Amino acid sequence: MRILVIENELPLAGHITRTLARCGHSLSAQPDGALGLQTALTQRPDLVVVDLQTVHGRAFTGQIRRIRSASRVLLLTGKSGADPRFSGAPSGTTDVLTKPFAMTELVNRVEVLGRTVPTDAGGGRLEVADLRLEVRRRLIERAGKTTALPRREFELLHILMREPGRVFSRTELCERIWQRDHAYGSRTVEVFISRLRRKVDRGSIAPLIQTVRAVGYAIGAPGYFNRVPTTHA
Q: Residue 51 is part of a domain; what is its CATH number?
């Protein structure tokens, strides 16, 4: 995931970024709360880790809510539970971590949030190269051809297209779509990837659904994944 850390305690910010980078994520950090929130709104990272003591002012609650529409949010606080200025946390795409915390707990929270989808994911349109996904109608369009997707194929493609370039392991895809149901496994993911390829990439000289050997699957132009951190298998 692309993660932005907003934390004015520089040693802690460094520790967080190094730890999450070792887990295969792409990290950036901002010590200034106001600039950090603005960066989150303009760059729309997949996850924002923000220390509530770093952000100030009455406008910050509204900004956090706007960020939640496009990104997952992990709130760091020195208080027990959610900061009283921010109601509604935690939710599916928001979590609260109280200081002090172990880095293993931070990693666990990040991994859980990584398996959720931001709150605006139920509508709109996603695009990767010349592929378009109409979310509400579960339609894909490429090379002038429109195709309706069954539920599971849509869910799989939706996950890939929300984070183009990110390599998902078969295990993570299976967990996110089938919620660890023992009747499904990595072979099931391969079957659904094959079905999607027939609908997305058939007849194209630039296939978009990529297999990253010994890791998993991603969506994007060939060769892109040599430059992009992958999730662990």
A: 3.40.50.2300
